[in-house]
Specification:
The protein has helices spanning 3-24, 29-43, 63-68, 95-99, 115-126, 133-143, 145-149, 161-167, 171-183, 206-213, 224-227, 243-254, and strands at residues 106-112, 153-156, 186-187, 193-194, 217-218, 231-239, 259-267. It is α/β, with parallel strands linked by helices and 276 residues long. It has two domains: 3-44; 66-273, 3-Layer(aba) Sandwich (Rossmann fold), CATH 3.40.50.2020. Strands 1-7-6-2-3 form a five-stranded parallel β-sheet, with helices on both faces. The radius of gyration is 20 Å and the shape is globular. The termini are far apart. The relative contact order is 0.13.
Length: 276
Amino acid sequence: MNQTDSHIGSFARQLVVWQRVARQFVVPQFITQQLITPTLDFFLPPRCATCDIVLARAPALCGQCWSKLDFIDGPICNRTGAPLPFDLGPQTISLNAMRHPPAYHHARAALYYTDTARVLIRRFKFHDRPELANLMVPWLLRAGEKLLAHADIIMPVPLHWTRLFGRRFNQSAELARKLADLTGIDMQVEWLRRTRRTPQQIGLTRADRRKNLRGAFTVPKKYYRFLRGKQVVLVDDVMTTGATVEACAKVLRRIGVAQINVLTVARVVLPETVHI
């Protein structure tokens, strides 16, 4: 990279910072629309969120990457939202859910956690791309339409403060915030807290994940009265085994939340629920 390119890259990064500052504070909309965003687009052209091909606008996916997204449109378990191999009606509950009823009432996800969805979510989560929430929230609205219809509160799955410090934002909170903006449902970030930093869940079995998360979440007592009898939608980016949302749901149930539903962008399809 030559010196000119380096200066342009540095200037563009500063513009990104100012664009985020403008979103956080009361900055006249015409300033961001007429000045910051066009200048940023000139130095850093909009690109596909997964393959980086130049696009007319962002955040967006190119046609090829969009075609590789695998939306969950077929029959699902009414409780867990896990895909089923055949349709027995909308109230069908999978054998796994009957044998091991989840602590939450219903869960829904928009996508299978396959290659393109994995790249998209990892960029959102680990590459400081909070603006990608704007791309994914419409999918959450579609997948969670019935869950959101009677919801009182939207709550993101919390991060421990040490991870939040390192990552700079909670991806679940970004999704929940955009979802609340579009639906008008109250969002609460502080009411459910992660009080213990747990080892990374990657590579752990279902049993190990549950053990790992035991005692990791809490609700401060001062919020109990606001949650009792309410319908809550927990929002997260990916459901793998469901251990994290189960741990959250158990805490909420203990303090008297009437209904806990779960909404995620994607879910890992385990062997027992692989779609045919």
